[in-house]
Amino acid sequence: MKKIFALFLFISALGLKAQYGNANIILNLLEQKNGINKNLDHVNIDDVKFVLIKDFDDHTERDFVIIKGNQATYVEVFDDKQTGESSSNVFSGDIVRSKHQIISLRADKLEGKKIPIAMTKTFLMTKQKDILYLIDFNSKERWIEESAINKK
Question: What is the pLDDT of residues 24-59, one digit of tens each?
Fold first, then answer.
């Protein structure tokens, strides 16, 4: 009786391990498909421009992040739909790229002049279908690599 019980426990343990292994493989594939669990340390983001476009009833906002080495430029362009006028703010500063695809932007200059409180953004870099994205940690907005828009 003890041998049958031990054999049953052994077979059950193997079955549970196999199920856990399959579930783990499926979860890893889903994370990679969503771009979350990819190792992007080898991806060069030097001279890369990311774009975010927001359309409102009265205006359109186009935001750009241009990365050159450890320096970055953040540009906000506002297009008024009523008058057709455009205005822009150009921030400059630096970025820090840490492991695990996290990019921190700190822009402490507006139009070349120091500002008292730096504008900061923190992004998670992901890649889906060979297109780089930056996901803003605070607003969950997805910035897309500009070269991917120009390809279409």
Answer: 666 666 655 555 556 777 788 888 899 998 888 888
- Tell me how far apart the alpha carbons of residues 86 and 80 are, in angstroms, rounded to a whole number: 6
Structure-token match 């991917």, residue found? 148
Distance CA 97, CA 45 (A): 10
CA distances from 65 to 6, 102, 135 (A): 62, 15, 12
**pTM confidence score:** 0.71
Q: Are 145 and 50 in contact (CB under 8 A)?
A: yes
Compute the residue count for the chain.
152
Structure tokens, 141: 């907005």
Which of 114, 139, 140 lies closest to 126 in space, CA to CA? 140
